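TODO from last week: model Eukaryotic translation initiation factor 3 subunit B.
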Amino acid sequence: MWSPLGTYLATLHKQGVVLWGGPNFTNVLKLSHRNVQFVDFSPCEQYLVAYAPLDNGEQKLTIFDIRTGAEKRSFISDAPMAGNVLRWSKDDKYFARIGHNTLSVYETPSFGLLDKKSITVNGIRDFSWSPRDNVLAYWVAEDKDVPARVVLLEIPSRKEIRANNLFNVADCKIHWQKAGDYLCVKVDRYAKIKREKGDVKYSGMYFNFEIFHMREKNIPVDSVEIKEPIHAFAWEPIGSKFAIIHGEPSNNSVSFYNVKSGQAPVLL
């Protein structure tokens, strides 16, 4: 796996991780972490997170300082074996993870909890850092008559800078525009819900794309609704256009939208 800036190539071995780099592309660092399965780099390449399974089905996450090779902190997680359990802010100053009804934000270089306590967020499902600012977007599932919520949280102040309530929500996906100027939250919504023996079944599905204008006062939100199945969403690599693939499998369509400051998304 390559590091984000292309400085290192990480190879995985039974005893740990080897980083390769430099002008002659040599072995520059060995990190001991038995049975490592995945690695993640922090955005500025200061830290590496190694993931390894434990015998009880949990996984051990260890953070290493790439400059010194020192182990900075480790965690035990019961999440499925995969990377991206710990997620970093764009400047490596913070990282965060989800627990049971909690969002835990840690700061570097101390690797302690920000303000020495986790943030209680009942029903939190997912979160994502802005690629430009120290802002977290997270969403909370609905609970009976309490609506689902999308929240923008400023770090380190923990200030809610925007919240959006949503009803009849089955799922959400968070998509930041690369420059952090816009945030899209894809919302899967339902007309009816049926609960049987612990299973939840939705019908009458439709979809909203909630567009947050991050650089405008009070962060206004526009909504694009599509009543067909959604197959993919993506922002363009540079710019503020996005594309949606939608429709029945035998008749897919691709729609392009342009987002500008002070305007609702325009279908091109």
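Done. The chain is about 0% helix and 55% strand.
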